[in-house]
Amino acid sequence: MGERRIDHYLGQLLDEERFEFYRAVADFADREIAPQLLGWERAGGHVSDELIAQLGEMGIFGIPIPEEHGGQGGGLTELALMGLALGYQSHSVAITPGAALSLGANPILNHGTTEQKEAHLADLATGSRMVVFGLSEPGRGSDAANPEVVAERTDTGWVLRGEKCWSTNARWASHVIVHAMTDPDGRNGHRSTCFIVPMDDPNVHYSEMSGKTVWTLSSTGSIVLDQVSVSEDQILGELNEGFKVMVTTLNGGRLFIASLALASLAFALDRVRTYVQEREQFGGPLARFQRVQDVVLEMDLALDRNLTWLITLLDRYAAGRLDREQASKVKIDCSRAASRLLLDAMEICGGVAGLDEFGLSRHHNDLFVTRVGEGSNRALMTQIARGLLPDCGSILQ
């Protein structure tokens, strides 16, 4: 498809070192993933162990982990750049290290004790260990602050019971961070606690969720906790402060999801602008029609605008100045703009856009997850509206 349009913008927004990192990952994706992606999808199954090992050897799983723990010492900006580079070809591939880091390693980095960091980070940095974030439940999605999984205190610690679902990377996980109710009568936001639980506990039962049509190569599992005993030293963060762990984890995760949405938009823009210049109809290329040009231009405007916004917020996150509202807004806008414009792109390309080998249908399906993952757009919009309309009544309370 020629030079990527997104590279033009990233070259202006990033310093040389970060841009070279992005290009190295993008070159790997072009060389090792793109030629095999369609075959993997048609064969079914998940991201291969061989590819996970390759990503580990590249240091991808160690991006935000400090060097003293075997990592690269980077941050969320490098993680988002990885999302842009790998997500351009496949969200399924990008989310495998993405979730392992933003939802697995980062909570331990930000809230773990010295002992917990020493126990987990070195293996997480190589990809030989993954931690899955147990948040969503069969009866809880947007109301994640009030989990149905319960932790009951015992003489020696706690007992967990309940089920987590939509858990990304469950197939490969060595541990799950379980967000559980510990004080049902506590004040809002101070009722739950996070626990680090080994997946090989005999009372932890994992099963892959079947019938999924999005992120098809990614592992998405259900995790049942059947009277699982845990000790006090398995608490991640403070007792009854699990909501804080969850919120700070999702804040950064929303920026990563935004990067995946923009990766899809970037792929679609390059695919479409190449196609409409080559495809001839009515005596010339499609690109000569004004309505076709409008779609291509709108895609380019959205990519330029939202990419600049995302990089700005990543800088704020690194400086500790990013608030929840901004993280939610960029996730909402990137996912909605990419989804809308990708449909427009498919329309101007016609029937070929419905073929899996063309690539747009893959991104069309995967973009759905960016609209509901890390907080449903509709729920996030309701939260933002509370600040804009503080006197709007009980519906938003």
Outline of this structure?
This protein has about 400 residues and is an alpha+beta fold.
Structural shape: globular
Number of strands: 10
Query: How far apart, in Å, are the first and last alpha carbons?
Result: 49 Å
What's the tally of helices? 11
**What's the CATH topology label of the largest domain?**
Butyryl-CoA Dehydrogenase, subunit A, domain 3
| CATH superfamily descriptor of the largest domain | Butyryl-CoA Dehydrogenase, subunit A, domain 3
CATH class of the largest domain: Mainly Alpha
**Major β-sheet profile:** 4 strands, mixed
Residues in helix, %: 40-55%
Strand content: 5-15%
- Low-confidence stretches are none
Q: Would you list the SSEs in sequence order as H and E?
A: HHHHHHEEEEEEEEHEEHHHH
- Strand order within the widest beta sheet: 1-4-5-8
**How many whole angstroms does the radius of gyration measure?**
21 Å
Instruction: Name the CATH architecture of the largest domain.
Output: Up-down Bundle
Arithmetic mean pLDDT? 93
Count of spatially separate domains: 3
Structural class: alpha+beta
Structure overview:
It is globular, with a radius of gyration of 21 Å. The chain has 397 residues and is an alpha+beta fold. The strands form three sheets. A four-stranded mixed β-sheet has the order 1-4-5-8. Strands 2-3-7-6 form a four-stranded antiparallel β-sheet, with helices on one face. Strand 9 (280-281) and strand 10 (284-285) form a beta hairpin. Helix 2 (16-43) packs across helix 4. 53% of the residues lie in helices and 14% in strands.
